[in-house]
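Protein record

Derive tokens from sequence
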Amino acid sequence: MKLYDEREVFETGKGKVLREGGDVTIIASGIMVAESLKAADLLKEQGVEATVIDMFSIKPIDKELIVKYATKTKAVVTAENHNVIGGLGSAVAEVLSEHCPTRMRRIGVKEQFGQVGKIDYLMEFYKLTATDIAEEARELSLDK
């Protein structure tokens, strides 16, 4: 899935809003951005509107954007192809805890040893698919 054209400008410390929605915010990085957009499509079929943000810059992170959308939707899910500790999810949690306490969930590799395999297998194994993201986001949006 091609997300940007060759002329797209990326600014360090700034995320990009790829889709607007009012029920839940999904903040993703790397290959999880495309999965998050697919998750937003699945959520829309269930009547849940998701904002999707590409947070390609984690340090520094776009605090203003995170707070803006956490305030708007009151629910945040992070999605990363990384351990949930010390990556995007942790960085977003730090921002929210200090500036805008918000319910959140982190999609990523949990505390376990790594596996080797094809990307589809690994996405399923670590529960990193669009369906996994949508499930967490839907649950979180309904619990507000």
The first strand starts at residue 16 and ends at 19.
